[in-house]
Amino acid sequence: MFKEPIKGFALLLATFIMTECDALGASSYPVVKSELVVEDGAADGSLTNFRWLDDHRLIALVGERPDPTPRGRKRMLQSLKIWDVRSNMVSVLAPPDIDGLCVADGVIRYLERNTAPDGKETFEFYSGTESAIRKVEAGRFSRFNCRLLTEHPLPAWTQKIPEINIRRLKPEHGFIVIDRDSPTHWPRSVQLYRKGNGQNEGVDLTPMIGSHAGDGRVAINLRYYEFKNAYYINSPGSNPESVWLFPDGKIESSSDLGRRLISVTGRTGTLSTAIASGKVFGASRVTEEPVGDGGLFFQLEGDRKPAKRLVKGRIGQEIEVSPDGCKVAYLNDEREYIDPKTPILFHKLQVINLCSEKKP
Q: What gap in Å lies between CA 1 and CA 343, rounded to an integer?
């Protein structure tokens, strides 16, 4: 692993700026911009292309060069890099071609793609701590600890339950069972089983999904936030509000900033992302049209005033929060216009510190 100082290298040009967005009345917070091109992930955390290793360092799948393999495929070869936001240094953890990133509890997991001249692909899998990564066997793993599911088996009585009706949490927190006949049927109940609970000892979470509505589909997509030691669930079922789920089964309502902003801006938007002091949300145009009022928005917890735009641009779906709940890492394409002939977004990794107005 080697390090590249920012100065003198085109790969990463980090500059500290104080961002203010006129008409939307944003406050000034320190932002660090980079030239690291990262493909967008998923808003619900099911696909992550960058993650916080700690409160000051990010690990990311960084686009390096177009795929040279045959069959006419167009994708970017990716390396795995670590960016220290404080020192503005980049470390290369693994050269191209890397994919399938998972980072949690100090564990890093990824796959290396090897492409033969005829286009045939093979994969090798790696896992471990930052200083001790080794080749491992393939297998299904939990995104909450990046370890194989076989390392933390569920109780035998769950074997009769379809996997699609189970939501695994961190092993020490247990798992959730959605009792329903199919994903299109409204659940009879939603139960949390903490570590050591028997089949009849679940904590009833059914009230959080609201009353039966629509076609019966209930989305329970969980994201764990270390700063709160809780899982954030965006608007489960017919519930208009998002909720916090704590390991003991306690449920706490939380406003869904994202839904309000979609109606206000008319932009393609991300889900609300919780931070220590409130919520952030991206609302963007993804076509060749001007950026307009798109960007990254912020609202203090309990503040009923309109959300403030902190950063202008086209914000990616994936937004990651540092363990202390202060720093927000996001992807941004800042171009005012995009060529309609090649309407491709080039998102670059940026960080904003919402706990400080002086330092990143």
A: 35
For the stretch 40-70, pLDDT in tens is: 887 777 788 999 999 999 999 999 876 554 4
Tokens 């409204």 found at: 186
pTM above 0.90, yes or no: no
Rg (CA), the chain: 21
CA dist., res. 158 & res. 166, Å (int): 9
- In sequence order, the 6+-apart residues with CB closer than 8 A to the CB of 19 are 26, 28, 29, 31, 310, 311, 312, 352
User: CA nearest 264: which of 308, 316, 319, 312?
Assistant: 308
User: Structural domain boundaries of the chain?
Assistant: 3-353
- Is the separation of the CB atoms in 267 and 307 below 8 Å? no
Distance CA 118, CA 71 (A): 9
Categorize the per-residue pLDDT at 1 as very low, low, confident or very high, splitting at 50, 70 and 90. very low
> How many angstroms separate the CA atoms of 247 and 234, rounded?
17
Q: Is the Cβ–Cβ distance between 347 and 40 less than 8 Å?
A: yes
CA of 212: how far to CAs of 108, 111, 166, 188, 235, in Å? 40, 41, 20, 10, 14
* Sequence-ordered list of residues with C-beta below 8 angstroms from that of 17, at least 6 positions apart, any chain: 30, 31, 33
* pLDDT, position 269: 63
Q: Integer distance in angstroms from the first to the last C-alpha of the chain?
A: 25
Q: Name, in order, each residue with C-beta under 8 angstroms of 13's C-beta and a sequence gap of 6 or more.
A: 6, 33, 34, 35
**Beta-bridge partner residues of 94:** 80
Contact indicator for 231, 205 with CB cutoff of 8 Å: no
Domain 3-353 has CATH 2.130.10: yes
pLDDT digits (tens, 9 = 90+) for 63-94: 987 655 444 556 678 999 999 999 989 999 99
